[in-house]
C-alpha cells in the first residue's frame, strides 16, 4: 500500500475506485466497506483509494470540543488500512480553507483533478463543501465522468453504532469487548521518555510513553494486561494508566507507563507499540513504595495468568462450526468467507450438504478448500440433517449456524467466554440482528428468549411485532429459556440428538 501526503505529487491513477471518510479506528464495520471498495476496484481492473484527513475534521471544525477522542492516530490508521488490501491511502490536510470549498470545487478541483475516479463508493449521508450542501445526489450529477456506488443506510448506521459502542467499552474498561468490536487489539503508540526512576528502584522499571496523538482515547486509570513487540519478539507487559497516587509528590497529570516482563534494555527515545489485552484492576493509593512493590508483584502474577487464560481459550478449545446446506450455493459464496475470516483460528468450519441438487458440493471443494465437507448424499430435512451430520463431528463446543447468517469479527468470543466460565450452560447464542437492517434485532432470533406464564415464547429484542433497535441493551449475558437455531452453541455434554 502506498501512502500519499502531498496532493501535488500524486501519481496518475488507473481506473481509480475511491471512498472518502475519517475511518477512525478502522474497526470491523469499516473493514466491510473497505472490502467492497477493493472488490469494486478489482472488477474494473483498477486501483482502490482511501481518502482520509489529517487532522480529523472534527478537531478543526470544533476545536473547543475537548470531549472528542480518537480511536486511532494517523499513523495507527494507515497501518490498519494497509491490512485491508487497499492500494493507496491519501492523507489530505484538513484546514478551514479546505472546508470552505464549494461543492463544485470539491468535486471538480479536488476529486476529479487529483484522482480522475471511475467510481466513488460513498455513504448515503456523505456531505461536503461549504455549508455541507454537497451530497450523494450532487455526486451523481457527474455521472458522465464517474459512477457512484451508494453504501446503504443501515451499513453506515451500523458503523456509527459500532464506533459509539467501542468508545463506550473503552471508557468503561471493557477492553475485550472493545477489541471484539474493533476486530483487532486496541493499541497505544508513542515514544519512550525518561521518568524519575522509581520503578527501577523497586525492581519494576517502566517505559514512560508519550503518545503520538494528544487526542487519542485513553482508557480510565488502572492496571492492564498488555503485549509489546520488540525486535520481532512479543513480550508480555504490565500497563499502568493513572497519576500515581501512591508516590508522594507525583505530578497530577495522567501517565502511561509499561513494564515489559522479562526484558532488559534501553528503550529511551524509541517508538513503542502497546497492545491492550484486558483490564485487571482500578488504580488505588497504597501506603509507601514497599506496598506498591508488593501490589505490582501481585499484578504481574494476575496479568500472566490472564494472558495464559486468553491464549488457552483461543488455542485449546475445540470448536466446530457446522453449517447445513441445501441448494444454497449463493449463500455459501456470500457468507462463508466472513465465517472463515471472523471465527477463532482453532474453530473448524464444516459444511454438511443435505443432498443439494445444485453445484454446492463442487463450489465448496473448489472455492473453499479449507472447509471440511460432509456430503450426506440425500436430503434429511433440517433437524435430522443436523443430527446426522453432528454424529460425524467430534468437538468440545458445537456451533449450529445457518448458511445465510453474516458474522462479525469476534462473534463467538463472548459466548465461548460465558460457557467456559459456567460449565452448567447447555446452550447459548450470540445476539442476532436483522441482515437488512443491522441496527435492529432479527425478528425470530433476537437475543434469546423466555416464556410467560402461559408458555407464550417471546424474544429479548422483539415483543409481538415490535422489533427493538440495538443500543447495547442486551450486550450482557442473560439466562434464557430458548436460543435461536440460526446461530447457537452447545457443549459436548449436551446431546445434539435431543437438542435439535
Walk me through this protein's architecture.
There is one protein chain. The protein has 500 residues and is α/β, with parallel strands linked by helices. Helices cover 31% and strands 24% of the residues. The chain has 15 helices and 22 strands. Strands 1-4-3-2-5-6 form a six-stranded parallel sheet. A hairpin with a 5-residue loop joins strand 18 and strand 19. The longest helix has 28 residues, at 288-315. The two termini are 47 Å apart. Mean pLDDT is 87; it is low at 493-500.
What key attributes describe this structure?
500 residues, alpha/beta, six-stranded parallel β-sheet, six-stranded antiparallel β-barrel, 31% helix, globular, disordered C terminus
Secondary structure: elements and pairs:
Elements: E1 2-4, E2 17-20, H1 28-43, E3 48-54, H2 57-61, H3 74-82, E4 88-93, H4 96-99, H5 103-115, E5 119-123, H6 136-140, E6 147-151, H7 153-171, H8 175-182, E7 187-193, H9 198-201, E8 207-211, E9 222-230, E10 233-242, E11 255-260, E12 271-282, H10 288-315, E13 319-325, H11 329-342, E14 347-353, H12 360-367, E15 372-375, H13 382-390, E16 397-401, H14 413-421, E17 427-428, E18 449-451, E19 457-459, E20 462-463, E21 466-467, E22 487-491, H15 496-499
Amino acid at each position: 500500500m502506498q501512502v500519499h501526503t502531498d496532493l501535488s505529487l500524486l501519481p496518475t491513477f488507473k481506473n481509480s475506485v475511491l471512498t472518502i471518510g475519517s475511518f477512525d479506528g478502522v474497526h470491523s464495520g469499516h473493514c466491510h466497506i473497505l472490502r467492497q471498495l477493493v472488490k469494486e476496484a478489482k472488477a474494473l481492473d483498477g486501483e482502490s483509494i482511501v481518502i482520509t484527513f489529517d487532522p480529523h475534521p472534527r478537531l478543526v471544525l470544533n476545536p473547543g470540543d475537548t470531549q472528542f477522542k480518537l480511536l486511532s492516530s494517523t499513523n495507527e490508521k494507515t497501518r490498519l488500512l494497509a491490512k485491508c488490501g487497499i492500494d493507496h491511502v491519501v492523507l489530505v490536510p484538513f484546514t478551514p480553507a479546505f472546508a470552505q470549498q464549494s461543492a463544485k470545487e470539491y468535486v471538480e478541483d479536488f476529486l476529479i483533478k487529483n484522482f480522475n475516479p471511475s467510481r466513488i463508493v460513498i455513504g448515503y449521508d456523505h456531505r461536503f463543501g461549504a455549508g455541507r450542501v454537497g451530497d450523494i445526489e450532487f455526486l451523481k450529477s457527474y455521472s458522465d465522468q464517474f459512477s457512484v456506488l451508494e453504501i446503504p443506510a443501515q451499513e453506515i448506521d451500523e458503523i456509527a453504532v459500532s464506533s459509539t459502542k467501542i468508545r463506550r467499552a473503552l471508557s468503561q474498561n471493557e477492553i475485550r469487548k472493545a477489541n471484539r468490536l474493533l476486530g483487532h487489539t486496541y493499541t497505544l503508540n508513542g515514544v519512550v521518555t525518561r521518568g524519575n526512576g522509581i520503578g527501577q528502584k523497586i525492581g519494576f522499571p517502566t517505559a514512560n510513553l508519550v503518545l503520538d496523538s494528544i487526542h487519542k482515547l485513553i482508557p480510565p486509570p488502572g492496571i492492564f494486561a498488555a503485549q509489546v513487540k520488540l525486535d520481532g519478539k512479543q513480550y508480555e507487559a504490565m500497563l499502568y494508566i493513572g497519576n500515581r497516587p501512591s508516590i508522594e509528590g507525583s505530578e497530577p497529570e495522567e501517565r502511561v507507563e509499561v513494564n515489559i516482563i522479562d526484558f532488559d534494555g534501553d528503550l529511551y527515545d524509541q517508538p513503542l507499540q502497546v497492545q491492550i489485552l484486558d483490564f485487571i484492576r482500578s488504580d488505588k493509593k497504597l501506603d509507601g513504595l514497599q506496598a506498591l512493590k508488593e501490589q505490582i508483584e501481585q499484578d504481574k502474577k494476575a496479568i500472566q495468568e490472564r494472558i495464559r487464560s486468553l491464549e488457552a481459550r483461543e488455542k485449546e478449545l475445540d470448536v466446530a462450526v457446522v453449517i447445513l446446506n441445501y441448494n444454497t450455493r449463493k449463500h455459501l459464496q456470500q457468507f462463508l468467507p466472513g465465517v472463515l475470516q471472523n471465527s477463532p483460528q482453532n474453530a473448524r468450519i464444516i459444511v454438511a450438504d443435505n443432498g443439494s441438487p445444485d453445484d454446492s458440493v463442487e463450489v465448496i471443494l473448489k472455492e473453499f478448500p479449507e472447509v471440511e465437507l460432509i456430503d450426506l448424499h440425500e436430503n434429511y430435512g433440517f433437524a435430522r440433517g443436523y443430527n446426522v451430520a453432528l454424529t460425524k463431528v467430534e468437538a468440545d463446543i458445537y456451533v449450529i449456524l445457518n448458511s445465510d447468517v453474516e458474522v462479525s469479527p469476534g462473534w463467538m468470543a463472548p459466548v465461548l467466554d460465558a460457557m467456559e466460565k459456567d460449565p452448567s450452560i447447555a446452550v447459548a447464542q450470540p445476539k442476532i440482528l436483522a441482515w437488512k437492517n443491522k441496527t435492529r434485532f432479527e425478528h425470530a432470533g433476537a437475543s434469546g428468549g423466555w416464556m410467560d406464564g402461559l408458555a407464550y415464547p417471546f424474544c429479548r429484542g422483539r415483543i409481538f411485532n415490535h422489533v427493538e433497535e440495538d443500543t447495547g441493551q442486551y450486550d450482557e449475558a442473560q439466562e434464557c429459556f430458548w436460543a435461536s437455531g440460526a446461530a447457537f452453541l452447545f457443549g459436548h455434554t449436551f446431546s445434539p440428538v435431543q437438542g435439535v
